Amino acid sequence: MGFFNRIFGTDQENAQNLAELRNFYTALTPYKPAFRNWHGAIYESELVRAAIDARARHISKLKVEILGTAQPNLQTLLKQAPNGFQTWSQFLYRASTILDVTNNCFIVPIHDEKMNVTGYATILPQRCEVVEDEDGVLWLRYKFSNGRVGAIEFKNCCILTKHQYRDEFFGESNRALNDTMKLIDLNNQGIEEAVKNSATYRFIATLSNFAKPEDLAKERKRFTEENLSGEAGNGGMLLFPNQYKDIKQIDVKPYTVDSDQMNQIRTNVFDYFGVNEDVLQNKAYGDSWSAFYEGCVEVFAIQFSEAMTKTIFTNREIAQGSSIMATSNRLQYLSNKDKLDVSSQMADRGIMTRNEIREIWNLPPIEGGDVPTIRGEYYLLDSEGNTTQNVDDVTEEGEE
């Protein structure tokens, strides 16, 4: 059973689904609810790719947790990995990258031979349309670059969007970045031409007593080899006979973007994707990283959590507490001094357990470390918050 069929069903089932779809869903806006892939043109820029990669790297560190008791078999599978060929880290990285490049990310279910959902995967269609069948049920019809077409019922698909404005379902394209992309391309071309021009002609002169073109070519070759080649060994002195007249230097000044203009281009890209130099070069920590987290990572985490929860669980299951949540331990990005302050303050007040504090320092959990302590001296608390034993007494018993 191929990957395409594990998503869209057998060829016969997929063909039947496509046959039942009659027309576009009528939205409020005059635009057809359709998304067309912009072929990832912006991802070919080094600067843009670095910005997208910086976001995806941090988003891939989110921890996906499944809460509640609904659909236990599926929960067991998803707790390990989103599907059979990706880890959650790889899944989140690709989802973030697709979302930044196309402003839309489609997450669809994967089925086994009996059409039971066994996981979820991100797909990258060339085109996606919202259509409805004869009963008015909404479907998403995907067309891929290899020409294959498949359809999945809308409620079973998860859509993440950015820059959503005109369309009720899909985000806008990245055409707003076109001008900046052109400036980046022109600047790269300017640098390339500047390098080429540095190896071109620098002088022009009139040579007397040479009538044939081949004689001129031989003289130019001789002069270059004896005076301009790296092995000439002329000691820095250039000598030429009096046949050369009207010698003039060609002053080539290729234009390239100056540093201020280049910084403005970089700022345009950073502003568009919500990153900065420190994030790209892994220098952000503490308050700087917290600001990046709240403006970028947390936004993705919230949308991903809500969209996946709505896709996987029914309204009743959600009301009973079932959900998917993407979280991150932001405290790990504090400076060592700030980590120490947080650790001591949180432990003294019984807000964090010893294992939670060890997680901040990237240390493994210890046995008995999930019980909170309060400063009193320090006392262990039971699940209801009642005092049990003094920590010092427990330590002395262990030593005995």
Coarse shape: flat
What's the mean pLDDT score? 80
The proportion of residues forming helix, as a percent range, comes to 40-55%
Radius of gyration: 32 Å
Description:
The chain is of the alpha+beta class and about 400 residues long. The protein folds into 3 domains: about 5-175, no CATH class; about 180-250, no CATH class; about 335-400, no CATH class. The protein has helices at about 5-10, 10-20, 45-60, 70-80, 90-100, 180-195, 215-230, 260-275, 275-280, 285-310, 315-320, 335-350, 355-360, 390-400, and strands spanning about 20-25, 35, 65, 105-110, 115-125, 125-135, 140-145, 150-155, 160, 205, 245-250, 325, 375, 380, 385-390. The strands form 5 sheets. Strands 1, 2, 6, 7 and 8 form a 5-stranded antiparallel sheet that branches. Strands 5-4-9 form a 3-stranded antiparallel sheet. Strands 13-14-15 form a 3-stranded antiparallel sheet. The two termini are about 60 Å apart.
What descriptive keywords fit this protein?
400 residues, alpha+beta, 3 domains, five-stranded antiparallel β-sheet, three-stranded antiparallel β-sheet, 14 helices, 15 strands, 42% helix, flat
Produce the secondary structure layout.
Elements: H1 3-8, H2 11-20, E1 21-24, E2 34-36, H3 46-59, E3 63-67, H4 72-80, H5 88-102, E4 104-111, E5 117-123, E6 127-133, E7 138-143, E8 149-153, E9 158-161, H6 178-197, E10 203-207, H7 213-228, E11 244-249, H8 259-273, H9 277-280, H10 287-312, H11 315-319, E12 323-327, H12 336-348, H13 354-360, E13 373-375, E14 378-381, E15 387-390, H14 391-399
Antiparallel strand pairs: 1-6, 2-6, 3-12, 4-5, 4-9, 6-7, 7-8, 10-11, 13-14, 14-15
